[in-house]
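Me: Here is a favour to ask of a fellow structure person. Could you put it straight underneath, so I can go through it closely?

Assistant:
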Amino acid sequence: MTYSMFNRNNYKKITANDRLADVILNEYQLLLVLNRFDIPLGFGDKSIKDVCAVNNVNTSAFLFILNLLSNPDSINEEEIKSLPIEPLLKYLKTSHEYFLDYRLPELRIKLIDAIATIDEKIAHLILRFFDDYMREVRVHMEYENDKVFSYIEKLVRHSDTGNYSIEKFEKHHNSIEDKLSELKNIMIKYYPATQNSHQTNSVLFDIFLCEEDLRYHTIIEDMVLIPRIYQLENELTHEQSH
């Protein structure tokens, strides 16, 4: 999602009374947020709060994500402190499904088509590089699903969480878009000239978009989820000590 394309000089924070259709038409990159909150299209001229009510979506969490992706500078610490955790987890889980089950497999298909006419050895190296990356992303996200998100769900329910903590996740959490940047650089600098430039440019554009989407996904985990869970841990520790 190339949020840097937005003109923030005249930025106006998105509110619950804004019409959702207007928001999406103004910033089409936010379309992906709908799917991650299970909001279908066809909402007419309804406001954001009305669309959320119809679809049983937490309005404050939905607005928070829209504003964060539209303009990260618009988010403050107080908003993070009051952010409901369960809708945030749902957003992140659904994002994982999108990347693992749809976005990356689709990108692989387009990549295969784009490299079909170049030297077989080069094509094999490019595809192997991408397949290694897909495996790395899967391991990364499945760990978060199985270990981190499971821990947070137990924490919210006040269940036994063992000896795990959000600090352990924070220490080992790394960005996962760097290899896509490498692939992008390789293709731009060293991709052999062919007549298939439309397919090559198309897959490159998709790599740019996916890289940016993953970068913002990491930002949400690092700058929103982790601080919010630290806060919850501290609150529970304080409760238990009194």
DSSP finds ten helices and no strands in the chain.
